[in-house]
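Ticket #4471: complex job returned nothing on first submit. Input attached below:
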Amino acid sequence: MPPSLFWPGDHRAGDVFSPEAYARALVAVEVAWLRVLAASGPAPAGAADTLAEMSVDPGQLVEIATDAEGGGNPVIPLLAILRPRLSDAEAKWVHKGLTSQDVVDTALMLCARSAIDQLAADLGRCVAALAQLAEGHRRTIMVGRTLTQHAVPITFGLKAAGWLAGVLDALDVLAVARRGLRVQCGGAAGTLAAIAELSGNDGVGWSAGLAAELALAPSTPWHTRRTPVTAVGDALVTVTDVLGHVASDIVVLSRSEIAEVSEPAGEHRGGSSTMPQKRNPILAVLIRRAAATAPLLGSQLHLACAQAVDERPDGAWHTEWQPLALLARHALTAASQAAELLEGLEVHADAMSATVERAMPGLLAEQVSIRALVGRPTEAVDASNYLGATQSIIDITLDRGREAGAQL
Amino acid sequence: MPPSLFWPGDHRAGDVFSPEAYARALVAVEVAWLRVLAASGPAPAGAADTLAEMSVDPGQLVEIATDAEGGGNPVIPLLAILRPRLSDAEAKWVHKGLTSQDVVDTALMLCARSAIDQLAADLGRCVAALAQLAEGHRRTIMVGRTLTQHAVPITFGLKAAGWLAGVLDALDVLAVARRGLRVQCGGAAGTLAAIAELSGNDGVGWSAGLAAELALAPSTPWHTRRTPVTAVGDALVTVTDVLGHVASDIVVLSRSEIAEVSEPAGEHRGGSSTMPQKRNPILAVLIRRAAATAPLLGSQLHLACAQAVDERPDGAWHTEWQPLALLARHALTAASQAAELLEGLEVHADAMSATVERAMPGLLAEQVSIRALVGRPTEAVDASNYLGATQSIIDITLDRGREAGAQL
Amino acid sequence: MPPSLFWPGDHRAGDVFSPEAYARALVAVEVAWLRVLAASGPAPAGAADTLAEMSVDPGQLVEIATDAEGGGNPVIPLLAILRPRLSDAEAKWVHKGLTSQDVVDTALMLCARSAIDQLAADLGRCVAALAQLAEGHRRTIMVGRTLTQHAVPITFGLKAAGWLAGVLDALDVLAVARRGLRVQCGGAAGTLAAIAELSGNDGVGWSAGLAAELALAPSTPWHTRRTPVTAVGDALVTVTDVLGHVASDIVVLSRSEIAEVSEPAGEHRGGSSTMPQKRNPILAVLIRRAAATAPLLGSQLHLACAQAVDERPDGAWHTEWQPLALLARHALTAASQAAELLEGLEVHADAMSATVERAMPGLLAEQVSIRALVGRPTEAVDASNYLGATQSIIDITLDRGREAGAQL
Amino acid sequence: MPPSLFWPGDHRAGDVFSPEAYARALVAVEVAWLRVLAASGPAPAGAADTLAEMSVDPGQLVEIATDAEGGGNPVIPLLAILRPRLSDAEAKWVHKGLTSQDVVDTALMLCARSAIDQLAADLGRCVAALAQLAEGHRRTIMVGRTLTQHAVPITFGLKAAGWLAGVLDALDVLAVARRGLRVQCGGAAGTLAAIAELSGNDGVGWSAGLAAELALAPSTPWHTRRTPVTAVGDALVTVTDVLGHVASDIVVLSRSEIAEVSEPAGEHRGGSSTMPQKRNPILAVLIRRAAATAPLLGSQLHLACAQAVDERPDGAWHTEWQPLALLARHALTAASQAAELLEGLEVHADAMSATVERAMPGLLAEQVSIRALVGRPTEAVDASNYLGATQSIIDITLDRGREAGAQL
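Support reply: We reran it on our side without changes. The output follows.
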């Protein structure tokens, strides 16, 4: 898939949750099922290997996508392409016992795993960069701003620690979601009846076998219980949330009048088509874009969960695929951009210091009033001694970051 | 662009709002601007024609999409590809006086126009099909259902007239949106200052010239006043709304236990990968999917409008492109599916009649109670004489449909 | 209803779309229907007047709200309270021929009319204030900002004209929505069958009579065709969109480091619980809040439209009421806040001028490059002669504002 | 707060997340803080007890809500009412060291805890009822339906087990969210600087003290890191998701033509204003309503998280309160309705059986084809022996339910 012209930066998501990757995942599920059928039952031993060698070329992808309308999903047309390439004795076992939704749902779990793993790597880069910023700017004093107005002093290290804590929160949620990735294997109506006919027992073992082949968690069928999907969606949205917060701060701090941070310079980065002097905080702008759209994509998955009906829904299920794929790709793009942005962020401590000077004496008005209350000398007020628990907060967060880093 | 594997039916939207169509629209805007520059000013006369001959090949599309990250939109990399193909004397005038947003916004208006025109055609097919159903089933009595329960009698013609009225409402909204499609031409900060430098006057005439070249409405700049975009979005959502209502009704009426309508049969249409006896209402299911996702895409455009800031927004603008493109393509797919569905809808009058019989006598309980109140004979109650204004409502709606049909 | 503790500023919406106003509107519909029944038919002449005298006290509102769960809407419990206060001869005609949804939908149209009229008044105040700002600051030069960075010069008058154009767009959409407010009158399944039994004809005349009594547009029934509701919703969202844009600009321009505008001072306005020196742009902040939430409330109405089914929906209809009421109240609050904000906005022309100075010479880099291209003297570049069509754009917009003002 | 006239059933949420409860929670935070100030520092010992005795009457609530606009939140006007009732020596310590956001955020965590605990209780009732249905209908055969069409046999016990698994998933997510409820205590810009001035150390101990007083988790400040709020929101949405799925199934199975389940009968329950024979599945309809609106309320919280900026956001924070309160109340209402619905659900096994008969022989077409494949006798096909792993799936789910029940 070429990167989207409507979503600059999309190339960063690479192949993850691309149509090609999705098609490969569909095939991987069918291959794994053939292995189960061969290991425990009637399918010929080599069929799975033969199928595993097959690939779907671009023209066939178009054919599959087009023909997917007939049954409402790509499994039937995919099988129509794959089966003729096998011998009859092999072909007749392909997909046998499964329903289309088993294959689609399990394939989406595989795609989600790729996305989560790539995200964890990029967020790991963010963790490292943020830890360095928090440590390195522990004492870089800047103004704290509330409701856009100068409030009291903070340090840039504290701000970076706050960003870091957010990224760590997202990693926590992501880890839970990853553990929840599970196999879908229930047959036409979630009873495993066809599988039971094939296996001669109730089929639960074969379902577990499919899970094991794909290194997914085993599960009872969840065709109309979509919590595994919303868990992934909520985790992906949490990723763009915390990155959006970072980017929103950077956009503000990059304003011409503030100029306390700059994005890393790069060729053609942040340029304008007409004004050569400009250097726009374009990575932050594009991350904000992802953060502003991810929540609605995530809520689409919840709507699908809430409206699931019967043993396969009458429309809700079909709404999940595109939002989930977009959500994953947007999160990946944003995480990659954030890693680059944070690794190269230019922090202008002098500009921060100058802003602090201009914000005086109002910036210490609170300190004066508290000191007056408790009877301390108010002439000794100073931004550097009105920082409260800043160091402790940074320490606590860096500790958390080290633990997370060790687990990644 | 190949049709999306994540959105079965996407091939129906064809080239509308595809990356290729978007790239062509961007070029078309630059071409039109070169014509303005040549007609009124300094650019060489043949440059526009030379540019108009150029096309962007798939590999270049990838390059443009990738490089679009640098400036945040595809205009700079597009120009980097186009300019070297012109002579220096021509190349230096390309894009001169415009800003990237002028080109992107105007190109999106052109893409929106294609979408609206194609939608009007497909909705016109729906209008014709629905008029025929309303007329042909004026007296086909069926049960009315409220909150899922049998209520009082209606006719299928009345139901079709209600669907028709919805489609006509959507056409009305679409017509307003089409009239609002306008040029974006303001330069870096919406002042037309660069254009004024080039033209020697205040530049408004050249802006109007660009509008005329592209057959769009002239306009003052709207870089951060995004109502033209939300108007298009609301119209597209209204289209999927009314089609979603039709599809939701059809999904219910197709249930195995009701079976009062069937989707048109088609090869591979509505089939199952495991159950040969099934005939799923798959077009209606896929239309419902579009209707369940369009509202959130539309609200994304409103969020962008509300959060526009400065003379070009810091992220909100960039969120518009993908939702707008998806919204248009989903509406087109749904409208094409709806036209096919309604043109071939099988109406089972006998099944409707049988349901009416089974619903007796409760179905006429209201008639009995009203007749008792006004002292009419309650033994004469009958579904065929408890239809009130059904004929008038059908007539009013058909009249409206004829007027709309004449305008299409 | 007390103003919401969760939505500071809610008191500005007054009684519009309050539970009390909704209950009164429900009664007003029943009263109007009694008048139709008396004028054309069997109900006693005085019943409507008797009913019109009745009011619902707070305790009864609680009872109605609680009992509304039984039937899913408040009409049955409302009638249970009202009917016993009439004579039997009167009581038996109350609501006769209507269904609950007729009463609820028509009452919501009445509430929407109140909201739209109040909104038009507050937006009219915004139009006047913005026209004054645009005229008065025609030549107040400031920096234009794109992607947060200084770009080229604009004037504050141009910015105000852009805000004004947005408000005028919203007034246009609001006017269309107001014309679309219509009666709902169809009986149990939208056939007017019960009304026809009562009237002896097909009932359309009585439906028109109800519309006339309430000064709403006549209409065929729209129980499951919800475009009249989405049209109101889209208009309300457009209001908060354009006000959100204004507020987002003001929040930026109020930043401590920019300080080019200030909100009007007011007692307890913009204060902090701990920092006495602060003056937060709190009206703009609260308007932005409305603009960030309205789009999702609006999309809820579209979802309801898309999922309407049968002759009364199985859940979608019930989702409309709260979002619609909240949307209306939020828009009213925001419009009232915006009027106050714009009428008292402090514009710091000196600060704008100082920013322009600091932004030199980059702010004129584009002018230099264009002049070099066309061979004009580049030493004469100056912010005051790089404003292009600014004056014309202001003129065009002020003209539009005068026309709109004349219509309000 | 009277129950909402726009949300029938709202009375079931009782006082949870009502304005009154919110005001009490705000006071509770100030009381707890006074205890910390007295225990560790300078405030007089009795002040907290005096404050704890105070209540806010309805008129004062109106005053607080109205005056909340000035600072953008209710804390300043609340303090303006409370402080004068204390002696000067006490009053001067109230709120000292905190910022408004500390009080608001911590109060919202307290309200969220009430909501979660009440939800867990109602979901516990659902778990018990569903376990009984799953166990009791292990062998009640019914048709499985996919894409609205008869597919293969299932049992009603399997369906109930699927519903149960969803509720258990929601309880799991809710438990994680409950553990994440934490104190907000950072002062003006999240540094605890004022607290440090008061305590003479870095203030972290006092923050932990506040957490301990309120039995919340201790935490570094999270004024602009809103993951604790989105975690609550996602959990609440997951609750309505899984209940919405149950309700959507019940609405379908209640259709007049299917009639395989009925809602529990109740006086005035499911009645119509005009059709006495009707019994609408109104609880399920109202639960579906909650499920269709919760996802967008939840996404509002994510948007707020993503757009948090500076040390207190310029609008995003203020958007959280109403969606969070509505989300909690809607979830509570839905859970209470679901408990009642499931405890009294009437299951019509005879109707299920009759549907199975009518669905033959298609319902066993898959079984025939599989048996033909593996060479088993196809004349022995029977719905009762084409149920695969149904019993195992029910067992696994009941086990999970018992574990959850033990923890509630």
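DSSP finds 15 helices and four strands in chain A. Closing as resolved unless it happens again.
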